[in-house]
Each structure stands twice: as C-alpha cells, then as structure tokens.
Amino acid sequence: MELLTSVAAMRHAAESARAHRGRVVLVPTMGALHAGHLKLVEEAGAQGDAVVVSVFVNPTQFGEGEDFDAYPRKLEADRKLLEDQGIATHLFAPTVSEMYPDGAAAQRTSVVVEKLTTTLCGAYRPGHFDGVTTVVTMLFEITKPHVAVFGQKDAQQLAVIRRMVRDLHMPVTIVGVPIVRESDGLALSSRNQYLSDEERAQAPVLYEALQEAVAMVEEGELLVEPLVVRMREIIDSAPLAEPQYISVVDADSLDAVDQLNPGQQVLLAVAVYFGETRLIDNVRLTVPPE
Ligand code: AMP
Questions:
Q1: Contact 93, 5 (CB under 8 A)
Q2: Closest Cα to atom 14, ligand 1: which residue?
Q3: In a mutational test of the pocket of ligand 1, which residue from 25, 30, 37, 67 has the highest number of ligand atoms less than 8 Å from its CB?
Q4: Which of 34, 161, 218, 252 has the fewest Cβ atoms within 10 angstroms?
Q5: Closest Cα to atom 7, ligand 1: which residue?
Q6: Residue 193 CB neighbour total at 10 angstroms
Q7: Whose CA is nearest to atom 10 of ligand 1?
Q8: pLDDT tens digit string along 53-67?
Q9: Contact of 265 with 194, CB cutoff 8 Å
C-alpha cells in the first residue's frame, strides 16, 4: 500500500492505477479506523482493482464548538490496520493546508445539496453537509474513482451524496454498506472512544429503541407518533442519554412522515448526546405490505 500526502501525487497514482489496474474505488474516511471502516474497504475490494482509502479530518464539516480539534488522529495505527487487512492499494492522507492551500476559511467554492440537508443532523449542524459534499467532490476530482463506498451509519450523508452525484451527473457509482455494530448493538464509531465506562454501558439504548420501533412496524403500527414515544421512553431509560432528535422520515426524500404507507422505505434515525459525545444511529426498513 502506497501512502500519499500530496494532491499531485495522489492524482498521479490514481491516473496510473486507472491506466494499469482498472477500476478505482474510493473509501473516504476521517481516520481512527475501526471494523466499520474496514468493512467499507472490504466492499471496495470486491468492487474494483485499486482501492484508495482517504483519511482526512475535514475542518469545513465541523461547526463552531464541535470536536474538530479533539477528533482522534491515528494515522500510524490506521496505516497498520489497512496494511494488515491487505486490500487498500493507496492511503491518501493530506494535511489541511494541502487540501485548502489558502486555509479552510478562505475556501470560496462549495457544493451544496439543498433540502435533504435541512432535516435530521442538518437541522442541528448547519453547514456540515456543505463541508461533506465539497470535500467529497474534491476527493472525486483528485482520484476520479469509478466507485465510492460509504456507510449506512451516516444515512443522511449517503442520501445527500447519492443526490449530489445524480444531480451533477458525476461519473461515479455510489455503494452503501450496512452498519457494523458491537455485540451489544452499539454502532461502531470513531467517537465511541470519547465515552466513559458508564456512558458506554448505556449507549446500546439507541439501537434498542430503533429495534423496538421496527418490531412495532412489523406488527402493523403505521402511525409515527407511538413509534417516537416508545423510542423516547427507551432512550430516556438511560439516565446519561440526552436525545437530540428521534425521527421517522422517508428514506429517499428524508421528509418527515406522520403515517407510514405499506411498501414505503422509511428511515428511523436518532441522535443522542452522552455528555459531550454525540452518537447517531438509524435503521432503514420497508413497511410491510397490507
Ligand atoms: P467517518 O470516518 O466517521 O467519517 O466515516 C467514514 C465512512 O465510514 C462513512 O461512510 C461512514 O458512514 C462509514 N462508517 C463509519 N462507521 C461505520 C459503521 N459502524 N458501519 C458502517 N460504516 C461506517
């Protein structure tokens, strides 16, 4: 696996991989890699020939007061995990000044997906998805991938990226990968390491709440309110949990719904604070036919 830190070197390596190896697959990450990321890399290996993993903690997707400075940076450990897995062919780890030579705050161009970015996390993290779509577009421009792989863990991000690619006719196929979880149901996240032991012990309530709502839908519940009430009860049973949102939306438009339609694809999504740590989780499901 080749480590590249400059845009020019990455561009050159990706061009050469395209010419000699065939299909280029990109896996964008912010590093502090875990088994969830490695699952994306595994999928990337199945999708193509050259697998580029990017590790870049992108300042423009962090808001004021968010954890940009504290975000874990473990490039050496990330490199070792990828080497041991043996699938990635290129690791792209640029510095902030390499990606934003004038400084991130001086960037004057951004890619904005409208509407889908105003619900769920977007309602609480203004500008976050603009930072994501802009940096992903930059990574696409640098590596020109045939395929890019994203996790369903960030379901809104996946929907936004799919929409961006469709709207802008970007020549890349987006592949989504199911959420990888700990044995107690907690979705793997680089932010889980912020949790105290006590918080960690209570964190599985996110997935418990989602699963309970899925069971209610499978038993025929079509009204959203009782689903949200039940999820809130379960999350509130954890004394350290502070829910930010508990939402049921159409899986494609991300519009909030009051009532589920048989056959509809819906997304149950939650964001919950444990102290300073914000965890998100979701389940996508098809409402059973009548
Ligand atoms: P991040 O480094 O957190 O920005 O995540 C990079 C990519 O890995 C995103 O596409 C995430 O959705 C995906 N990802 C993170 N955690 C998981 C997980 N537990 N299961 C599946 N994909 C994940």
A1: yes
A2: 151
A3: 37
A4: 218
A5: 29
A6: 12
A7: 150
A8: 999 999 999 999 999
A9: no
pLDDT digits (tens, 9 = 90+) for 163-193: 999 999 999 999 999 999 999 999 999 999 9
- Three-state DSSP at 267 gives strand
One DSSP character per residue, 151-217 reads EGGGHHHHHHHHHHHHHTT-S-EEEEEPPPB-TTSPBP-GGGGG--HHHHHHTTHHHHHHHHHHHHH
- Write the residue with the smallest CA distance to atom 6 of ligand 1: 29
- Ligand 1 neighbours by CB, cut-off 6 Å: 29-30, 36-37, 39-40, 150-151, 153-154, 177, 179-180, 187-190
Q: Among 43, 53, 154, which residue has the most ligand 1 atoms within 8 Å of its CB, making it the best to mutate?
A: 154
In the block, tokens 């863990």 appear at 153
Give the active site residue among 37, 90, 128, 146.
37
Q: Alpha-carbon distance 105 to 110, whole Å?
A: 12
Strands 265-274 and 50-55: unpaired
Extract the runs of DSSP E, i.e. beta strands, from the chain: 2-4, 24-29, 50-55, 90-92, 147-151, 173-177, 241-250, 265-274, 277-286
12 is catalytic: no
How far apart, in whole angstroms, are the C-alpha atoms of residue 243 and residue 235? 7
Ligand 1 mean position, distance from CA 20 (Å): 29
Instruction: Please list, in sequence order, all residues whose beta carbon lies within 8 angstroms of the beta carbon of residue 136, skipping any fewer than 6 positions away.
Output: 28, 148, 161, 164
